[in-house]
Amino acid sequence: MATAKTSGFCLSTDAVAVTPSLAAFIERTDYNRVGNAKHWPPLSLSSTDSEQRDSISLLNERIRREHCKRESLSSRPSMDSEEADMYIQLVKEQQQRGLQKLKGDRRSAASGAFSYKVDPYTLRSGDYVVHKKVGIGRFVGVKFDVSKASSEPIEYVFIEYADGMAKLPVKQASRMLYRYNLPNETKKPRTLSKLSDTSAWERRRIKGKVAVQKMVVDLMELYLHRLKQRRPPYPKSPAMADFAAQFPYEPTPDQKQAFMDVERDLTERENPMDRLICGDVGFGKTEVALRAIFCVVSAGKQAMVLAPTIVLAKQHFDVISERFSRYHNIKVGLLSRFQTRSEKETHLQMIKHGDLNIIVGTHSLLGDRVVYNNLGLLVVDEEQRFGVKQKEKIASLKTSVDVLTLSATPIPRTLYLALTGFRDASLISTPPPERVPIRTHLSAYTKNKVVSAIRHELDRDGQVFYVLPRIKGLEEVMEFLAQSFPNVGIAIAHGKQYSRQLEETMEKFAQGHIKILICTNIVESGLDIQNANTIVIQDVQQFGLAQLYQLRGRVGRADKEAHAYLFYPDKSLLSDQALERLAALEECRDLGQGFQLAERDMAIRGFGNIFGEQQTGDVGNVGIDLFFEMLFESLSKVDEHRIVSVPYQSVQFNMNLNPHLPSEYINYLENPLETINEAENAAEKDIWDLIQFTENLRRQYGKEPYSMEILLKKLYVRRMAADLGITKIYTSGKMVVMKTNMSKRVFKLMIDSMASEIHRTSLVFEDGLIKDLLNVLVS
């Protein structure tokens, strides 16, 4: 909540709970009793009195509950107004840079501008769409029809709703329609909207808008926290140019830009780097990482390279070891489950004492036993392959070390944060000159097709990946292929094998001794086998789109034409989502489309584990496309959603509330004047200090008399008012009036967010004044 941290900047929905509390506190005050509470403790206490007197406890619980829903807000830094202005400008500039990097079919054909709206001509009959003002409907088709105003037929988009059919001119539809995609397996909405009653849709749209506001608050706080971190820029040295000169290829233009981006992050900025390198498989992401590692290690820091599988970690280790072999003072180590216990202990001690400069491994590198001597850089390959706990650990490191994330298909959250400027991104979409596109073949499975595909590759002295979705079935395929190709080296590889056995198998395949590797998706990331240019993927319907794209990228790394054969058992067994997934993959045959594919993937597969369950539900209210348009809109207008807090002492509380404490209570307190001063000082600091003071007071002296409760309520009201930019609270007749610096737009967002129908209808905004129209003050 804003009350927990506001000192110059927050978004409107961050303080939603506070305004009703201000009104409720004042409304519940019985003015006849203020100043007349002579006795303490009271002789009797009715249930109604108990509820009234415990309203502070209820508010404390509410603040704590809201606080727990979000991530440790009190530990994050706050801003003054000057910092807020600079920060808002920075976010807007970052967002513009991010949007300029967006590629693919999200650009409007007419204007070339970025758009989430759908082109009606790309819709198929039965697709679900969202009209911004009417709601969710089912697309029927585009047909010519005559309008009432003209005899000339024009094209209309016909949309079916729960209570009838609507038609919109195509031009209007292209401005108002969005594709409706749900963040889960099913694409069918719960219900269609009604043309005759749009109020239910309006409530859903507002709920989505509120969710966007909350998301923006969280994202901004995380980004701000990173911006507040400082480390000295790394020195530029001639050795860096010598290291770069060892790269045996001519860098592509995109690669050169990525090199410059990373070098600028490390040598010119004081904030830790958090950059995403998004490049297709084999496009040169690793070289970008190697140069970053050299820069950091040359300055005496350690670098960690994190890979999702031991196979990929081993490959990274080999590449890094070879590249750094001429630098005898730089030591490279691999930490993996392939090692014996004594080998692991030796490596752990070397890491702790700084004897290893570059450490490569899987998620074990994030464990508590790994203590770094002077960690400066974290390189994460294929972040989407890690689990939730590993991602949390990675996120915690981002505030203190430089982070470089490599991915061909970044997770949707990563992708969209990059585009909106919360994450710097470098796109490598230009293929190396010698690369040839991969030919993708999608068809029903037959043994003859499999044999034909493999024989074609073996005839040109190549190697083949044969991938299945799970371990069960590998032996059966082995038996079939051994009969079909009796004199060919064939082996099985999967993650459950003994580590030495797996390592030996992969080594033999890399050296060409094994011609056909039957495996699970353990080979999904990183393996770079130049001579393997055919991949057979069986039961493709069981793979995710990003997985298929990565698997397909295992081939086509040389100048030979590569083939990817995707086999499904029977089309009648495939879900609509699986069919759409495969169609999207076939459309992306050109090189360098992993970036666009990840965006497409966002609209196809579930992302509950990426955004969290709450946001997943919120997106479901309006569909992904409209949700993200609202997110972009909110970010671009962030300064309009700003609340500027005011100093606590400047808040005027002009209401006739001057309670007199009972003499019994005064005598009970050890030092009454000091207690009152402590309460005032706590309120001046922030809401958390006030909560802590109140709870400590009750622990020490028990429940306070009603007059002391009124005094505490005044402090709470002034504290919350200061956080909301309210400068004056007074009564006008039986109406409570609050003078504020917030805008009408912010006030409306707050009203829309309130759960209480009573407060939504009773609070009005006029000329910088919030008026509570509830006639409940007791005269």
TrEMBL record:
Domain (Helicase ATP-binding) ranges: 266-428
Keyword ATP-binding (UniProt): yes
The keyword Hydrolase appears for this protein: yes
Keyword terms: ATP-binding, DNA-binding, Helicase, Hydrolase, Nucleotide-binding
Domain Helicase C-terminal: 446-603
Coiled-coil region: none
CDD domains per the UniProt record, alphabetical: DEXHc_TRCF
GO biological process, one term: DNA repair
GO molecular function: ATP binding; DNA binding; helicase activity; hydrolase activity
SMART domains for the chain: CarD_TRCF, DEXDc, HELICc, TRCF
Pfam families tied to this protein: CarD_TRCF_RID (PF02559), DEAD (PF00270), Helicase_C (PF00271), TRCF (PF03461)
InterPro entries the record matches: CarD-like/TRCF_RID, CarD-like/TRCF_RID_sf, DEAD/DEAH_box_helicase_dom, Helicase_ATP-bd, Helicase_C-like, P-loop_NTPase, TRCF-like_C_D7, TRCF_C
Name of the molecule in the record: ATP-dependent DNA helicase, chloroplastic
